Amino acid sequence: MKDACEPPTALPRSLLVLGGTSEIALATTRRLIARRTRTVWLAGRPSLALEQAAESLRALGADARTVAFDALDPESHETALGKVFAEGPVDMVLLAFGILGDQAHDERDPVRAVQVVQTNYTGAVSAGLVAGRALQAQGHGSLVVLSSAAAERARRADFIYGSSKAGLDVFAQGLGDALHGTGVHVMVVRPGFVRTRRTAGRPATPLATTPEAVATAVELGLRRRSETVWVPGALRLVMSALRHAPRALLRRLG
């Protein structure tokens, strides 16, 4: 087995994307295909969008396949991911599924609020553990987890979403520690506001970024074998300051 402390390894030849229609995930996948990746599994709920995403990757020269995966059905995760790993080694798993929800509505509707948390955290815990164990069994691979800068500090504007990402972030860090020395590399990616179709119409925050910028940061993080990646990098300093800011100040910031 390779030790997790050894020098950076090559970019993945095979990739499993959990959340196969995510714009950030697809931008990352396209970048990796341009570098080295040849086999891609897009996991998500069966849909035309998922099939179209796979077709777009085939046009780039990748062997792109789809697999049925539902974040809200943890009991199916072992079977769904097992089908992929049974086909051969997976060099990287990108955990990219999640929902923003609508804070104004969700805080008045506990059922919808719980759905955000179950998708972003509970589903990710299940999928992360299954993927981590499979990577460990094969003796190598990277698990890249899309967290969020919102995980760093509770904000009035998005505390339901932020709390779910905070749980995911801590879980991913702990999983990385648990897998240290097994040959498995866990990397947490913390983007700020990302301009996508999903965020269209929402006011952008300072240091807003794009799926392509996140993809670039993921590639660099993989090459460096980083454990945490901020996008953009300056966000690390901003969030460090906000982490220690008085709650009264944060309330005024929203």
From TrEMBL:
- Quote the Pfam families the UniProt record gives: adh_short (PF00106)
Give the record's keywords alphabetically. Oxidoreductase
- Record's SUPFAM superfamilies? NAD(P)-binding Rossmann-fold domains
Say yes or no: keyword Cell wall biogenesis/degradation present.
Answer: no
Q: Does the keyword Oxidoreductase apply?
A: yes
Give the UniProt family note.
Answer: Belongs to the short-chain dehydrogenases/reductases (SDR) family.
What's the protein here called? Decaprenylphospho-beta-D-erythro-pentofuranosid-2 -ulose 2-reductase
